[in-house]
Design a protein that fits this description.
The chain has 13 helices and 14 strands. By secondary structure, it is α/β, with parallel strands linked by helices.
């Protein structure tokens, strides 16, 4: 699972990334601070299944607090993209290529309208963030179109002459951006393209295909950053009306980063995504007290959270539709080291018991006999569809 963090320069992408990972990255108030992509580990949050067994799990990776399980995911923060990125402007081609293997994208925008199209600071409310929403998907679509059209005429002519099927050939050409044969077939069917005569597809049809493939392989959620500024709250309401098909999540990356840093230093007790925190070290100076009071009253009480954890969770569980599955046994929830429910895996929607077996180990899949739903103790077959938070025992032959 790789989550790409994208957006124009200076909107808070690197702050969002650091708030999600606590990785050491350079953060500054000018464009193109990030050149090489930053990579780190963030976490998505679920209600832990240990609660169903009156146990406290002991994760091998990630962590669990108060029956809230945090599952690790890879995050990548690429350099800021500008209009014309697909043509190489602002080193755009390099930055787009960094995103090839991303499963989902988080588009960070400055919802307060205090960063113009060049990534320069302007007065809050003086720039329309709707322009950022439009430009980024346009750049991504044109990037896909560029890949699709590379040598297109010769490619399409060869397909017809050699009587090859278009879906497998196109999937091979576009595999670098995670396009599969099934995705291409679904896209062509939706757009009603003539699969027998691809050489006759016009520019509009190719553009529509590129857009459809991009939507299916790089779905996007929008992190409306700087929601704490007065213009931010007003703008996010306008954006939701203007773009009803998009998911906007208001967030304050600076607030999340401040809370996590304070928790790391033992100043507060805070769980990402919560609507409150508890001060545990009262030896604070006035600046620290004021900062925490601002976050408490102007962010957490007003918006319910800083929004950063919500963005990650919605990207994985709502936009991608993934489910979290635990391996376990009916008579043993512990591994040989005594850890309770030590592992939790993220799987695509509609994953079966057999898919999970292969996820655990190829040999488990090859020698699959049956699976057991540990919560209900019910035996299920290989085609059984798994549900979010299932605990599953795989029974194999030799």
């Amino acid at each position: 699972m790789l989550i790409g963090i994208v957006g124009k320069p200076n909107v808070g992408k690197s702050t969002f990334f650091k708030a999600s990972t606590l990785a050491e990255v350079e953060i500054a108030n000018y464009p193109f601070v990030t050149i090489k992509p930053n990579e780190g580990v963030g976490f998505v949050k679920i209600e832990c299944s240990d609660k169903d067994f009156n146990e406290q799990c002991t994760p091998r990776t990630g962590f669990c607090v108060n029956h809230k399980r945090f599952i690790p995911v890879q995050l990548m923060d690429v350099a800021g993209l500008v209009p014309g990125a697909h043509e190489g402007k602002g080193m755009g081609n390099q930055f787009l290529d960094d995103l090839r293997q991303a499963d989902v994208l988080i588009h960070v925008i400055d919802v307060s309208g205090s960063t113009n199209e060049k990534g320069e600071q302007v007065s809050p409310g003086s720039y329309d963030p709707a322009e950022d929403v439009k430009f980024l998907e346009e750049e991504l679509d044109l990037w896909y179109l560029q890949i699709l059209k590379k040598g297109w005429e010769k490619f399409a002519r060869t397909l017809v002459q050699e009587k090859k099927q278009i879906a497998p050939a196109l999937a091979n050409q576009l595999s670098g951006v995670k396009v599969t044969e099934e995705i291409i077939e679904q896209a062509m069917e939706k757009l009603k393209l003539n699969v027998e005569k691809p050489q006759q597809w016009n520019d509009d049809e190719l553009r529509d295909l590129a857009t459809e493939l991009r939507k299916r392989t790089k779905p996007m959620i929008i992190a409306a950053n700087k929601i704490d500024l007065a213009s931010g709250e007003k703008n996010i309401a306008l954006l939701r009306k203007q773009f009803p098909k998009y998911t906007f999540v208001g967030c304050s990356s600076e607030s999340e980063l401040a809370l996590k840093e304070a928790a790391k230093k033992g100043i507060i007790d805070y769980l990402p995504g919560d609507n409150n925190f508890k001060i545990i070290n009262h030896n604070l100076n006035e600046k620290q007290k004021n900062a925490l009071n601002f976050i408490d009253t102007k962010i957490l009480k007003k918006f319910g959270s800083t929004g950063v954890q919500d963005v990650l969770d919605q990207a994985v569980f709502e936009l991608l539709g993934y489910i979290a599955i635990y391996p376990g046994g009916v008579n043993r929830l512990k591994d040989k080291e005594g850890r309770v429910l030590p592992d939790c895996f993220l799987l695509p929607a509609k994953s079966t018991a057999l898919d999970f077996a292969y996820k655990l180990h190829t040999d488990f899949g090859k020698n699959f006999i049956r699976a057991i739903d540990v919560k209900t103790k019910r035996t299920v077959g290989k085609e059984h569809l798994l549900k979010h938070r299932d605990v599953v025992e795989i029974v194999c032959g030799r």
